[in-house]
């Protein structure tokens, strides 16, 4: 008799932020590379260091990708490429700073025309079900560009992914 696999109902993610100097800190998490953090230059921080604002937009962008990859695999879409840019708009509301929207612009390259239609549907589901987007109090828009690869384009093998 096969054992039923029990899925957990909750997950925990932990990290540590340690102040270094001025408006800079270090982010660490077990088993992951350290990441330098700082206040963004717009608010007196140094150039060239990730800020919490950058990371929030990156979290949305990467969550749309990983959610899409789930739906893409489930739909059997042959994916050739995926690249996305994201931009968040932060405003002062008169009381506090708040993100009012994040736009994610994926560029998806698929093998066949039928895959393009499935990819559009998978991106729509990703927009609706992205964990990070759903945790935010702002609009998240996915504005995709989906293309069919020219004949002979290299399709990644399973070992490439």
Helix content: 25-40%
What is the element string, with H for helices and E for strands?
EEEHEEHHEE
Q: Report the uncertain regions.
A: none
How many helices does DSSP assign? Answer: 3
What summary fits the major beta sheet? 4 strands, mixed
Distance between the termini: 33 Å
The beta-strand count equals 7
Provide the β-strand percentage band.
25-35%
- Global geometry: globular
Mean pLDDT: 92
Kindly provide the radius of gyration, computed on alpha-carbon positions and rounded to a whole number of angstroms: 19 Å
Would you tell me the structural class of the helices and strands? alpha/beta
Structure characteristics:
single chain, 161 residues, 4-stranded mixed beta sheet, alpha/beta
Protein described:
With about 160 residues, the chain is α/β, with parallel strands linked by helices. It is about 30% helix and about 30% strand. Strands 4, 5, 6 and 7 form a four-stranded mixed sheet that branches. It has a three-stranded antiparallel sheet with strand order 1-2-3, with no helix packed on it. A hairpin with a 4-residue loop joins β4 and β5.
Tell me briefly what this model is.
This protein is of the alpha/beta class and 161 residues long. 29% of the residues lie in helices and 32% in strands.
How do the strands and helices of this protein lay out in sequence?
Elements: E1 16-21, E2 24-28, E3 35-38, H1 52-75, E4 79-92, E5 97-110, H2 113-129, H3 131-135, E6 139-142, E7 145-148
Helix pairs in contact: 1-2
């Amino acid at each position: 008799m096969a054992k039923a696999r029990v899925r957990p109902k909750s997950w925990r993610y932990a990290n540590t932020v340690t102040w270094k100097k001025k408006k800079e800190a270090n982010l660490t998490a077990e088993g992951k590379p350290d990441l330098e953090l700082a206040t963004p230059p717009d608010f007196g921080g140094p150039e060239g260091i990730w800020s919490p604002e950058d990371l929030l937009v990156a979290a949305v962008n990467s969550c749309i990708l990983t959610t899409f990859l789930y739906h893409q695999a489930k739909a059997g879409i042959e994916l050739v490429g995926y690249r996305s840019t994201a931009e968040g708009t932060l405003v002062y509301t008169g009381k506090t700073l708040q993100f009012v929207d994040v736009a994610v612009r994926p560029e998806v390259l698929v093998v066949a025309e039928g895959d393009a239609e499935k990819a559009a549907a998978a991106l729509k589901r990703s927009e609706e079900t992205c964990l990070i987007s759903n945790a935010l109090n702002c609009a998240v828009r996915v504005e995709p560009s989906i293309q069919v690869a020219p004949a002979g384009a290299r399709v990644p093998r399973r070992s490439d992914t």
